């Protein structure tokens, strides 16, 4: 596929993850080798990658994820409650929410769970963009590389409500912080296409907020 196609069709895959087909660890390693080419602040490369394939560990992580997801869905602030005054967008949100519920119920069954982490003695106060900007581009590169190899992924963070419990489960040092949980599996079907998005001019601001060219 072209670069533009890769960038515009790498979707969050939840219901269509193949839970029964094993994923070769060599394929995951290929994706991670590409991820390591991402930029990091000061070229520190302070990232670490936890790849979980053990069924028992995956199940325990899945339990934490589902527990957090249930609280989130019951909170009234999940995506399912957004844009109720816009029927078209509300319908999309319902589909997204249904797929998120499905993933929460099956997270522990996904063949590979990848947890990108970054080494930090303590989280900085105030804006943390400098820290996470040295990890999240690499995590997205991993997801793009996975898509190019026929693997589906999804960006999830609900497990972070139990970050310390998951850290203890996986034996993470105290100065290693988790950034995201990326379920990874082959996907069923191949009909991914660009998603419906707000027009660029609705979110574009030139030079300053509300300045010339802003809409």
Structure characterization notes:
By secondary structure, the chain is α+β, with helices and mostly antiparallel strands. The chain is 40% helix and 12% strand. The chain has helices at 3-9, 25-35, 55-74, 87-106, 129-132, 136-148, 163-170, 200-203, and strands at residues 47-52, 112-119, 151-153, 176-178, 182-186. Strands 1, 2, 3, 4 and 5 form a 5-stranded antiparallel sheet that branches. Helix 2 (25-35) packs across helix 6, helix 3 (55-74) runs antiparallel to helix 4 (87-106) and helix 3 runs antiparallel to helix 7 (163-170). It starts with a helix and ends in a 12-residue tail after the last helix.
Termini separation: 34 Å
Tell me the domain tally.
Answer: 1
Give the low-confidence spans. none
Task: Tell me what the CATH architecture is.
Answer: 3-Layer(aba) Sandwich
Give the helix proportion (percent range).
40-55%
Beta-strand residue fraction: 5-15%
Number of strands: 5
Shape: globular
In CATH terms, the superfamily is: NADH Oxidase
Largest β sheet strand count, sense and barrel closure: 5 strands, antiparallel
Order of helices and strands: HHEHHEHHEHEEH
The fold-level CATH name is NADH Oxidase
Sheet/helix structural class: alpha+beta
Radius of gyration, in Å, reads: 18 Å
Average pLDDT taken over every residue? 91
CATH class: Alpha Beta
How many helices does DSSP assign? Answer: 8
Organism: Nonomuraea guangzhouensis
Keywords: Oxidoreductase
Family: Belongs to the nitroreductase family.
InterPro entries: Nitroreductase
